[in-house]
Amino acid sequence: MNKLDIVREVSKVTCAGVEAKDAVEVFIKTIKDALKRGEKVTIQGFGSFYVKVKGPYLARNPKTGELINKEGKKVVKFRPSPEILE
Fold it and tell me: Which end of the chain has the lower number of beta carbons within 10 A, N or C?
């Protein structure tokens, strides 16, 4: 399922296609903005999105085998609600 499929499902239940598209866009933007601020986003009965900071690490260049120091980075994680896994 992709964003267009979600828009179609929302438009079946609530409103016209353009309004559904706008609603989905606002929903996604709201989650992205909260994650950029470092906030955890929890949707009851669905799960939680949060940002995890990974520290620096060593990686290996597959062509040369040389070890490379990689900087830490932020990654988005998702933890599903137990209800979703039933």
Answer: C
Q: How many CA atoms lie within 13 A of 41 on its CB side?
A: 18
**pTM for the whole thing?**
0.75
Identify the CA nearest to 74 among candidates 43, 35, 34, 47: 35
- Indicate whether 19 and 9 sit together in one domain: yes
pLDDT of the residue at 16: 79
For residue 12, the model assigns a pLDDT of 86
Contacts of 36 (CB under 8 A, 6+ apart): none
- Parent domain of 77: 40-86
For 53, counting Cβ atoms within 10 Å of its Cβ (0-12 exposed, 13-18 middle, 19+ buried), the class is: exposed
